[in-house]
Amino acid sequence: MFERHRRLLSLGTVLVDALLINLAFFIAYWVRYDLQWFRAVDPAYDAPFRVYVPFALVLTALLLIAYKLNGVYDQRRGASWFDEAYSILSGTTTGILIMVAITFFYRPRHYSRLLFLYAGLLIIVLLGLSRLARSLLWGWLRRRGIGVERVLIVGAGEVGRAVMRSIMAQPELGYQVVGFVDDDPERGQTDIGRFKALGGIENLPRVVQEEDIDEVIITLPWMHHRKILSIMRECERGRVQARIVPDLFQLSISRVKVEDLGGIPVIGLREVSISGWNLALKRAVDLAVALAGLILLSPLFLLIAIAIKLDSPGPVLFKQVRVGKGGRPFVLYKFRSMRVGAEKELPKLRDLNETTGPIFKMRDDPRCTRVGRFLRRTSLDELPQFYNILRGEMSLVGPRPPLPSEVEQYQEWHKKRLEVRPGMTGLWQISGRSELSFDEMCLLDIYYAESWSLMLDIKILFKTIPALLLGKGAY
Fold this sequence. Notes:
Layout: H1 2-35, H2 49-69, H3 81-106, H4 113-142, E1 149-154, H5 158-169, E2 175-182, E3 197-200, H6 204-210, E4 215-218, H7 225-237, E5 241-244, H8 248-252, E6 256-261, E7 264-269, H9 276-296, H10 298-311, E8 317-323, E9 329-335, H11 346-349, H12 370-378, H13 385-390, E10 395-397, H14 404-407, E11 423-425, H15 427-430, H16 438-451, H17 454-470
Parallel strand pairs: 1-2, 1-4, 2-3, 4-5, 10-11
Antiparallel strand pairs: 6-7, 8-9
């Protein structure tokens, strides 16, 4: 049922996009030939709109194809508005460039480069706004239980429970967890909070039919691969979508590369992508932004320094040894957010740790000053790290810089996050911050190291702004 709805939604989106593209083209013509912004039209090259109708139709076809190739019409649940806007930007740029190339070789008598520039910009704006409106509407409807998919979780281990929590925390995704089945008889009979236990895996076909399940999410460890494949086949026969969530160790090596060795396929781990020209580009951006930040934010630095001095005795800056790229130690700078001597009090608070793994996090840490709580909630205490970036010890975006005592407790797979420079912000910052478990934070850092691109950095920086303003997960 939902697959048919997805196809209808995709078709409707294509039709709306086609209308908006032509509307944008008409507005672009009006701006260029009637309003004549920026540059007047030579009367010899004036043309009625009907002359441009074939151009508009060809451009519409080109853009719809480009959008399809860029995944604009995939209807992925959970895709952010930023992801859709980027796909639209990429597809529109491609289509406009192809259109310009066609007109270059065809050389029509009536042709305006400015008109195509206006059209491209207007198309990006109109389609971007349409996606934003749709995203807000879907979020509003799904939070009220409209248009949701009924989901069954297979496996109630750590990964299965994490999936349940994630779905529960994001109702705008449009998933309703009906319950779960498990291969462990005891777990399969014990409810987990609001999530209903529906028995063992052998009950899967009956549960899918009786509960009208739309999607099955499999969270079993890959060691049970035969069982997983059997479940996938069972779902295929029942025309129910099935997806697999890899466990922690699968995910940590999921970025594999396949090569050919004399006709024999061999698999190896993909190297960190931040190297060579990519590293030089990232470093250039880091230097430019850090230098600009130190200069432009200097008045804010002064205000924060005065507030810290008035609030509590002690230095303005806090210095601490952290571990950087390749395991090399460096001195990290922050605005002081705790009273002097706070590190010596840490052993007394260990039992109050609110997170997992070697890191220490406490929502209402008694060592924080009044100004310090505000600085930590807004991450303003991190601003002096622009200096660490200039020194080459950190980057704008990267893994959280760990303490030496934390690194000593790392498992082997955790150490992969040390292969890149630590950052002021990162995927962990925009994905929950202190609410993440240590393993989740490491997985995000490793994914970043293996999947780096300049666009990924830009997306993280843009998403950091609302994360800081809302203060979600910060303490």
